[in-house]
Amino acid sequence: MSPSTLLYLLIFPLSLHALTTHVPNSLCKFSLQRYVYDLCPLLQEPAFTVGDYRFNSQNDNGPTCTKNTWICLNDPQRSPITVASIHSPMISKPEMETHKLRIQYTGGTHNGTFHSALIYFICDTDTRLEHSSAPKPLVEHDGIHSFHWATKHACPIALADDLTDSGYIYIAEDLESQPDQGEQEEGGENFIDPTVKPRLSARATALTISIIGMLLLSTCYFIYNPPTQLLNHYLRPSLSRLPLPDINSFCLTRFKPKKYRSGRRPRPHNFRVGENRLVQWAQEDMLEDDIDVMVNAHDDDDAILDEYVPLSVGMDWQTRRPRDYGSTQFP
Description:
Layout: E1 6-9, H1 16-22, H2 25-28, E2 29-32, E3 35-38, E4 48-50, E5 53-55, E6 69-75, E7 78-85, E8 95-97, E9 100-110, E10 113-123, E11 135-141, E12 144-151, E13 157-158, H3 181-184, H4 202-224, H5 228-240, H6 247-254, H7 275-285, H8 300-305
Parallel strand pairs: 1-5, 10-12
Antiparallel strand pairs: 1-6, 2-3, 3-13, 4-5, 6-7, 8-9, 9-10, 11-12
């Protein structure tokens, strides 16, 4: 851009009638995140010049922009370029970036390039500074003309329920005074302090830990060193006098031992009969003529001389005689 090229902002009408006619309040006063921004007073200020830029040059003797234009770029060698038209929405892309209110004003097209104005409004309550109410040009790239404007009118006004004493919520300082302010914040919408949940104090935390520790130590001490004297002289006599039901009868009547099935397989029945049953069967089956002379003698005299041979093996482990089952003679 040549030094003779001027960027003009035609946003300051000369009368309130022109303000009401060409710039309605809906384009300069808006709400964002429970806060109200009123930029309409900026449109009523007189014209001024900053460096190579002149603002509100509509009634100047120099080159002027076309009608119904807010921001234009004038070059003596070519026709004015509309940067922001008065018929376009004043706030087409409101954002919050590192304590700056970012507003983009759409413009027109010139030689196939679309032009727009991008203004970063900074909340600045120090009206004594001359630059606090004057925009500063930053850079122009691909038809986007950027400005930095520090003014008190950029401070958000809280709603009625959150209104402070001064009526303003200060979201930032001047970029030149705090160049690193944007790096300290994460995101562009942190101009309000987040709600912090209440935390326990260090004293309350230490007291809670001490109480829990004392309870654990006391429990361990009474487990390993029970107070026997207290139990024997006070606790047990008191429990014995309580009208408690008989434990044995209670257990026997209400709780029966449960029988569990054995995991061993059942063995086959043992069909061996005892000695007494064999003798009984022998006495029932024998007749007088069918006397077992092998076991019993023919008469009483022979029975005296004969021996009695049991039907089962004897339990005399001291003798060394051979034990014969049902034998009447020894070799």
